[in-house]
């Protein structure tokens, strides 16, 4: 799972909320949950790209969630999302990061604004990529002040399966990431066996 | 049988101050007040105006002593500009004429203070718990309260002084509405940070010593205390150690002692309250631990109001009511017998909530996948229950908007009515598109045929319900 996180200036803490702080905590706790997953099916490998100021950079190299230590991201500057898409594609091509035996990757885009670079060709290339096209792609929009343009980018990234998940305020993010975590970590069940009632009280 | 007792009170509860019997509003209209307040906060009390749909908030203290930096008139004016549409919060209408300080506000009929549901009596608790509507009603009221707070927070506001005394709830046990009656401390978060308002025992530790002002994080601390008080009938910080002296109690409230349920520190356990395995479920235990362990002195680590609303609603859906006539107990369907009267659990059906992942779009690979949740809806014979948006959508705009009415006949048949605006799909075990159920139409299906109800198309991530029967244990 690769998180593409917006760390532009609009994510900076203000008197109303601390978007970047909440995002840091959400991602860290999601990775912790992955690390605690049953390892029978294998391990979840996680990585993160932060895009802000004038560049997208590898914030956390892809590796097993159990070994990941989340360094807090800091916010500032523009929203170079196209550069983040390019970097994501490079990671998917890197056999060190994504082995040939790995499950299809999941990409999570978290943003609160309009890209400040030329994102469309970069997104087209990412979606045309052999793994990028098949990846489970989730986009999370933060804040109520997103413009239709910003919404459009998020919608194009995620495709129709998930649509754009909205967190009107940073305070909605934890529940959203909890859902993403549940989805990714749950045991896949082909059948619909009657549930054990005790499972409803499982810690 | 359960024995549970409430903590002895150090001081007898204060009797409510005797208010005036008549006040006048700013237009000079006389308003005759009921004798006892229906609620109160740190700064005032609310009295119903006799034979009307209005109430009056009377402010106790003089403005200058409150340290809020603005006058009542300014505060009321500012409230008009806050985005409170659609929220069940009383709004000020008119100021009171001198010498009284306060305002009139609208009030729903048949609402009563939440305080009797949260403040446990000394001595035996079981009768008190059941007469207040037991576990299910408490969960539903708390969920609704958390939901309102989540919307308020979502709009960038803080409530500031959340306590059972300024929450009204439906007087009828069949209804689960809440009504907040302390609007004058609502503020946008940035302006709330400069002050610390609250009701003792419900305030976050950082407010006591002035480390911080009111925030969404102090609101959710108050909410967590209220949840613990209502469900467990005991204060989460005032255990047997905190209860030893006034000084210990102060230290506990300031976050200097472990909470009563601490995972590694037994010093402040509590002998009082309703046993936790009777009223808590894993998801709520986890939130309580996050609120009072990691979040005790680290406000950012406290669960959000939305997390509370989701967990409380989900817990309420897993409760059932005892079938024995005369027993008012409700309990989680995990138990085989009623903990209050020992009757066997009634037969029930469970609508299990799962997430559908389209083929090629999930961790499962090329087949469509399903992800279990810890959510489900208990159906008792011939008692219709609505599935709402929180069951049918991943992210809900309106958690309690009805989506489908479900009724189980006690045997093998489930009746469904589509209460939403989009078609639903009834899909057989072999898969495929299934049969559509259009808005406002009905259908019946047999549980044994293993059909399921889908709330989205096959190529989209969406939620679905599958149905299962559970028989009572025969003694």
Automatic annotation (TrEMBL), chain B:
PANTHER family assigned: PROTEIN KINASE DOMAIN-CONTAINING PROTEIN, SERINE/THREONINE-PROTEIN KINASE TNNI3K-RELATED
Residue ranges of the region described as Disordered: 1-44
Ranges of Basic residues composition bias in the record: 1-10
Listed PROSITE patterns: PROTEIN_KINASE_DOM, PROTEIN_KINASE_TYR
Biased composition (Basic and acidic residues): 26-37
GO molecular function: ATP binding; protein serine/threonine kinase activity
The name this protein goes by in its record: Protein kinase domain-containing protein
Domain Protein kinase: 32-314
InterPro entries tied to this protein: Kinase-like_dom_sf, Prot_kinase_dom, Ser/Thr_Kinases-Pseudokinases, Tyr_kinase_AS
């Amino acid at each position: 799972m690769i998180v593409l996180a917006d760390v532009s200036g609009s994510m900076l803490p203000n008197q109303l909320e601390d978007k970047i702080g909440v995002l840091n905590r959400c991602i860290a706790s999601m990775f912790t949950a992955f690390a605690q997953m049953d390892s029978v099916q294998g391990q979840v490998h996680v990585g993160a790209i932060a895009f802000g100021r004038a560049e997208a950079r590898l914030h956390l190299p892809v590796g097993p969630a159990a070994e990941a230590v989340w360094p807090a991201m800091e916010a500032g500057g523009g929203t170079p999302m196209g550069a983040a898409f390019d970097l994501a594609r490079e990671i998917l091509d890197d056999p060190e990061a994504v082995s040939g035996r790995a499950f299809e990757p999941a990409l999570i885009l978290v943003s609160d604004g309009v890209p400040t670079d030329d994102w469309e060709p970069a997104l087209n290339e990412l979606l045309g990529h052999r793994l990028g096209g098949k990846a489970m792609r989730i986009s999370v929009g933060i804040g109520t002040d997103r413009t239709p343009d910003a919404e459009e980018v998020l919608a194009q990234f995620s495709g129709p399966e998930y649509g754009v998940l909205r967190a009107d305020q940073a305070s909605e993010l934890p529940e959203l990431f909890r859902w993403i975590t549940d989805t990714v970590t749950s045991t896949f069940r082909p059948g619909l066996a009657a549930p054990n009632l005790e499972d409803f009280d499982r810690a | 049988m359960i024995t549970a007792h409430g903590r002895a009170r150090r001081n007898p509860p204060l009797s409510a101050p005797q208010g005036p019997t008549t006040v006048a509003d700013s237009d000079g209209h006389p308003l005759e007040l009921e004798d006892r307040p229906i609620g109160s906060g740190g700064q005032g009390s609310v009295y119903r105006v006799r034979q009307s749909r209005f109430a009056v908030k009377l402010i106790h203290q003089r403005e200058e002593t409150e340290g809020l930096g603005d006058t009542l008139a300014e505060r009321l004016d500012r409230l008009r500009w806050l985005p409170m549409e659609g929220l069940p919060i009383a709004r000020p209408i008119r100021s009171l004429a001198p010498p009284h300080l306060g305002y009139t506000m609208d009030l729903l009929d048949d609402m009563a203070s939440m305080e009797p549901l949260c403040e446990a009596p000394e001595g035996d608790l079981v009768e008190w718990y059941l007469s207040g509507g037991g576990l299910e009603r408490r969960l539903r009221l708390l969920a609704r309260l958390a939901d309102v707070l989540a919307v308020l927070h979502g709009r960038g506001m803080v409530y500031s002084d959340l306590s059972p005394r300024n929450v009204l709830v439906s007087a009828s046990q069949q209804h689960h509405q809440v009504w907040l009656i302390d609007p004058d401390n609502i503020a946008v978060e940035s302006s709330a940070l400069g002050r610390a308002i609250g009701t003792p025992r419900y305030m976050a530790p950082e407010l006591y010593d002035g480390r911080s002002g009111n925030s969404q994080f102090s609101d959710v601390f108050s909410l967590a205390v209220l949840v613990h008080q209502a469900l467990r009938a005991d204060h989460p910080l005032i255990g047997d150690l905190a209860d030893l002296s006034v000084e210990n109690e102060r230290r506990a409230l300031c976050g200097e002692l472990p909470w009563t349920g601490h995972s590694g520190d037994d010093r402040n356990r509590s002998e009082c309250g309703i046993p936790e395995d009777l009223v808590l479920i894993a998801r709520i235990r986890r939130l309580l631990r996050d609120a009072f362990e990691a979040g005790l002195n680290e406000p950012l680590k406290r669960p959000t109001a939305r997390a509370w609303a989701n967990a409380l609603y989900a817990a309420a859906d897993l409760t059932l009511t005892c079938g024995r006539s005369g027993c008012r107990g409700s309990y989680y369907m995990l138990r085989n017998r009623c903990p209050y009267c020992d009757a066997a659990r009634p037969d029930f059906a469970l609508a299990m909530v799962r997430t559908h992942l389209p083929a090629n779009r999930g961790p499962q690979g090329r087949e469509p996948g399903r992800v279990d949740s810890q959510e489900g809806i208990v159906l008792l014979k011939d008692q219709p229950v609505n599935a709402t948006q929180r069951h049918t959508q991943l992210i809900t705009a309106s958690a309690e908007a009805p989506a489908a009415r479900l009724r189980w006949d006690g045997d093998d048949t489930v009746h469904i009515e589509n209460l939403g605006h989009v078609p639903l799909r009834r899909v057989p075990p072999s898969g495929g598109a299934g049969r559509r159920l259009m808005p406002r139409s009905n259908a019946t299906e047999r549980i044994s045929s293993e059909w399921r109800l889908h709330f989205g198309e096959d190529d989209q991530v969406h939620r679905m319900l599958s149905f299962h029967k559970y028989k009572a244990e025969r003694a």
